[in-house]
Amino acid sequence: MFGLVLIFVIPAVLANPLAPRIECPKFTPVEDFDIPQYLGRWYDIEHSKWNFGGEELLCTSPKYGLINATTVSVENFSLLDSALGLFPVKATGTASVTDIPGSLLVDFPYGDSPSPLTPDGYGNYNVLKTDYVTYSCIYDCQPTEDQVYDGVIAWVVSRTPQLADAARQECEDVFFSLGVDMSNFIHTYQGPDCTYPED
Ligand SMILES: *[C@@H]1O[C@H](CO)[C@@H](O)[C@H](O)[C@H]1NC(C)=O
Ligand SMILES: *[C@@H]1O[C@H](CO)[C@@H](O)[C@H](O)[C@H]1NC(C)=O
C-alpha cells in the first residue's frame, strides 16, 4: 500500500518542475573526476533554455584548457544567427574546482559578481556522467524562489558535432531521475554550415 502511494507522489513532484525551487535534489557528480582527461573541445548537443543559451546560438563548442591544478580556462565558441548572417561569438571564463569532486564553478567575468557556490557547496558545473571520449552530462541547480525560472540548467556535450542517440540517452536518463524539465531543451545546430575555431 505504501509502495503504491509513493509511486503516485513522486511523479506529482516531478510534474511541476517550474515551481520555485528552494531546494535542489540530491545528486552526485563524478566522484573520480579527472580534469586532464576532460580538457579539449566539446560540442554542445542540447541544453536547457537559459539567458546565454538561446536558439540563436549555433555550432556552440566549449573548449577547456589547463591553467593550473585547480583552474581551467573556458572558451565557449558559437555562431550567432542574426538577420545579417552568422557571426562568431566567444565567451571566455574560468572553471575552478570546488571541495566536491566533479563539481566546478564556472565564472564569466562580464560585469556582475562571481558566481557563488550553492549553500551545499556545489558549483554551477556539475559533471554527472562522462566517459571523457564521447559524451558528458552537466547539471546546474541553484535554489531560487523565482516564480518562472526553476533554477536548473542541464547540458549534453559531445566530443564530436553529432552524438549517437544511445549516448544522449545516458544523459537524459540521469536528468530524468533528477526531475529536469527537458521539454524546453534546445537542440544545438551542429550541421554543415558550422565552422569551428582551429585547435
Ligand atoms: C590558478 O590560477 C588561477 C587563475 O589564474 C589563480 O587565481 C589561482 O590562484 C591559481 N592557483 C594556483 C594553485 O596556482
Ligand atoms: C558555455 O558552454 C558550456 C557548455 O555548453 C556551458 O556550461 C556554459 O554555461 C556556457 N556559457 C556561456 C556563457 O555560453
Protein architecture, described:
There is one protein chain. This protein has 199 residues and is of the alpha+beta class. Helices cover 15% and strands 36% of the residues. The protein contains three helices and ten strands. The protein has helices at residues 2-14, 35-38, 165-177; strands spanning 40-41, 43-47, 57-68, 71-82, 85-97, 103-107, 125-130, 135-141, 152-158, 186-187. It has a ten-stranded antiparallel β-sheet with strand order 1-3-4-5-6-7-8-9-2-10. Strand 7 and strand 8 (135-141) form a beta hairpin. The radius of gyration is 17 Å and the shape is globular. Mean pLDDT is 89; it is low at 1-15. One 2-acetamido-2-deoxy-beta-D-glucopyranose binds next to strand 3.
Strand content: 35-45%
Q: Report the span from N to C terminus.
A: 58 Å
Please summarize the sheet with the most strands: 10 strands, antiparallel
Helix- and strand-based class? alpha+beta
Task: For the largest sheet, list the strands in their spatial order.
Answer: 1-3-4-5-6-7-8-9-2-10
- Spell the H/E element sequence: HHEEEEEEEEEHE
Using DSSP, what is the number of strands?
A: 10
Number of helices: 3
Radius of gyration: 17 Å
Helix % is: 10-25%
Shape: globular
Which quaternary structure do these chains form?
single chain
Q: Unreliable segments (pLDDT under 50, ≥5 consecutive)?
A: 1-15
Small molecules (ligands, ions, cofactors) in the structure: 2-acetamido-2-deoxy-beta-D-glucopyranose
* Average pLDDT taken over every residue: 89
Signal peptide: 1-15
Keywords: Disulfide bond, Signal
GO cellular component, one term: cytoplasm
GO molecular function, one term: pigment binding
